[in-house]
Amino acid sequence: MTSLKDDTGAAPAAQFPAGFRWGAATAAYQIEGAAGEGGRGPSIWDTFARTPGKVLGGDTGDVAVDHYHRFPEDVALMSDLGLTAYRFSISWPRVQPAGAGTVNQEGLDFYRRLVDALLEAGIEPWPTLYHWDLPQPLEDKGGWPERETAHRFAEYAAHVHAALGDRVRNWTTINEPWCAAFLGYASGEHAPGRRDPAASLLAAHHQLFGHGLAVEAMRARTPDNRFGAAVNLYAVSPATDDPADVDAARRIDGLQNRLFLDPLLLGRYPADVLEDTARYGFVPADADLAVISTRIDHLGVNYYSRHTVAGTPGEAAQTASSPFSTHSPWVGSDHVRFVPSGRPVTGMGWDIDAGGLHEVLTRVHREYPEVALYITENGAGYDETLDGDGTIQDDARIAYLDEHLRACHRAIADGVPLRGYFTWSLLDNFEWAWGYSKRFGLVHVDYATQRRVPKKSARWYAEVIRRGGLPERG
To answer: Catalytic center at which residues (predicted)?
Structure first.
């Protein structure tokens, strides 16, 4: 363990292991902007955001927070915070505008410059190859429900790895395949906005298959690199001990968590989920599962909240990923209700439950083969404005992060191989179907001027990093 002490000479009460990675995370479409620059082609999110009624306020990521032009300033902010690692995503349509074929070297050069700037600042780059911005030409050919898209993804991954594999050690293939599959192809709340339950199951499978193909291709080239995927996991509780509520929790846990953990780490799909969704004809091939379960070196866990669910009629809570939600993403289980739990909520209306993070981490450690774990996203979104003195006093975010980091510390004490934490997000940014109405950043961004102002939470997180842990509670 580290021996860092605070200014009074006392060691932090929740002290993290030496070498623990302290990071922040972003995604390309949410921050880069420059949508029509540098040879970048259109993504499904460009198309979706420009479609009236899909994104609050008609917002798009065309400019976002202009990270494409301002990345040196953003790397300087990371350095000021003391980050030891930075998780960002690479825009597939910036690298390969058609989703196949010709590689756009100007796009790769942008990521070469970013990686070099990070390394020069002493910050470890952690790229994610897919954070939902599928090239539009691939969607025009059927998108993720088509098996061919998985092969195109592996080819794209190999191109990026060839350009950066000499300087990047840790890779994440796909981010939150649940969202891309079920919000994108079942409920239509996210790009590409389709409502086809059968297609959504195929989209989930082909993302996992593409992950496995990509890991095989990249590992063959550079065996000493480390590869993994990032999944969004939830603790799931039944509203009561009524058998219908207990079954509802089983169903949602299956679709949210086990549908991805089981094939990645056990080489099989959960039998009960296949039964729940049998009407849609999803029958995965054993050969595919052998590829999907190819060895990974780390698993990213994105955690924000707990689901409390019921299988009986009654009041439902707001769990939408879009202000325009009308269709369920819960394929085969759309009768399930998400019910109010009475817990405090974030500005997104999501339950605040740090105990659920400890539950998720210890469950993965207990029920699956051991693999290094990283919190690849965790944070809270609120509606915020600058105070009169030009600051953001985001005490609610600090409280959220403090509680969740303490949950991480408890998990480590319980034997969980948790190696790092990336908060979401470094910068306020485009929050998908919510546009610019919700802010998750440690750093406030004035979207009109692109001026960056670190919030109180940024100063707090910098002190946590400096001390190597959290102080005694006040």
So the answer is: 176 (proton donor), 377 (nucleophile)
